[in-house]
Structure formats: structure tokens, C-alpha cells
Amino acid sequence: MDYRRRYVPGGCYFFTVVTFERRPFLTSDLARACLRAAWTEVRRHHPFQVLALCLLPDHLHCLWQLPEKDVDFSTRWKHIKGNFSRRYRAGGGNEGERSASRLRTREAAFWQRRFWEHLIRDESDYANHVNYIHYNPVKHGYAQWPGEWPWSSFHRFLAEEWYDREWGWTPPKMPPDFKTPPEP
């Protein structure tokens, strides 16, 4: 597969990041604290705005807005994953079994090596991805309604009246050209 990332200065991006071997630990107290600390630390040196987020046990979805003239989301994810891994291991978190290549490169076994990214094209694409992010806990069977899932920006969007209280009891209507990310 010839996959090429699209780098647009100041772009708005959708991401899917998955744990190593889909291990379901991200919603634990320790993992959430480590992820929050890692994001805070990385944002000090490499700013970005988190527009929407949903944290699930084995993956996360989010929308970021990069600063004007900045395209480097890859470095941000590298530092977030590395910072998280060090904190999580130090806090007693267990990692998966490392392969020979991971041992050779001293790479932890908390995250899949890559991530899915999509450049947001316009307001409609933005809205579709926000809806996808917030409906994800229902899609995966963790909640019957997005408001039941505590680790999501859905609650902020609901408070800001982006959604009405009935949204999410049925799957959102997505346009035919909407490309869902590959299943993590």
C-alpha cells in the first residue's frame, strides 16, 4: 500500500491511535493520568488544540488544530506515545510482549507503531468526524447513548448546544463519501 500523509500548515486533523495488540487499558485511572500528563507536556513544546476527543479502552479518536504554518503532527504523536509509555511503565502499567524488533529499537509495547490521520477538508467533513468521534462508544457497545460515556468531549459539545439531548440514540447519518477510518 502506498500511503502518503497530507501535511497542510495549520491543518485540522482527525486521528485514530490504537494500543498494542488492542490491549484495553486506556480508560484505567493510571492510563488516563499518564495520557493527560503526556499531552500537557508535549503541548508545552509543540502546541496544538484538541477540538474533539473520545478515549476508549483500546484506542482513541481525536481532532486537532495545528498552529498556523505548523504541519508536524507526527512528532507530536511520537512524543505523546513515548512520554505516555515512560509514565505508564513507571506507574506500574504492564506492557505487551515486545518482539525482537521492538527490543532492538528499545520500543515499548503500549501502542501500535502507526496511527490513522485524515486532513479535514471543510465544515461538513469536520461535523461528520466530530459525530463519528462522539458516537464511537455506542458503536463499540460501551454505551447506549454518547452521554453515558465519560471519556469524551461529547459532554462539552452538548453543553455548547452543538447537539440536542436526543442526538446519538440512533446512528448519525453519514454522507455516502464519508470514509470511516480502518477498524483499529
CATH topology of the domain at 12-121: Alpha-Beta Plaits
Strand order of the largest sheet: 2-3-1-4
- Rg is 17 Å
Give the biggest beta sheet: 4 strands, antiparallel
| Broad shape | globular
H and E order: EHEEHHEHH
Structural class: alpha+beta
| N/C terminus separation | 17 Å
DSSP E strands, number: 4
Strand coverage percent: 5-15%
Q: Which stretches of 5+ consecutive residues score pLDDT under 50?
A: none
Number of helices: 5
Proper CATH architecture of the domain at 12-121: 2-Layer Sandwich
Helix content: 25-40%
CATH class designation of the domain at 12-121 = Alpha Beta
Mean pLDDT: 91
Spell out the CATH superfamily of the domain at 12-121.
Transposase IS200-like
Give your account of this protein's structure.
There is one protein chain. This protein has 5 helices and 4 strands; from the N terminus they run βαββααβαα. It is α+β, with helices and mostly antiparallel strands and 184 residues long. It has a domain of 110 residues: Alpha-Beta Plaits (2-Layer Sandwich), CATH 3.30.70. A 4-stranded antiparallel β-sheet has the order 2-3-1-4, with helices on one face. Strand 2 and strand 3 form a beta hairpin. Helix 1 packs across helix 2. The longest helix is centred in the middle third of the chain and has 18 residues. The mean pLDDT is 91.
Quick overview of this protein structure:
This protein is α+β, with helices and mostly antiparallel strands and 184 residues long. Helices cover 34% and strands 14% of the residues.
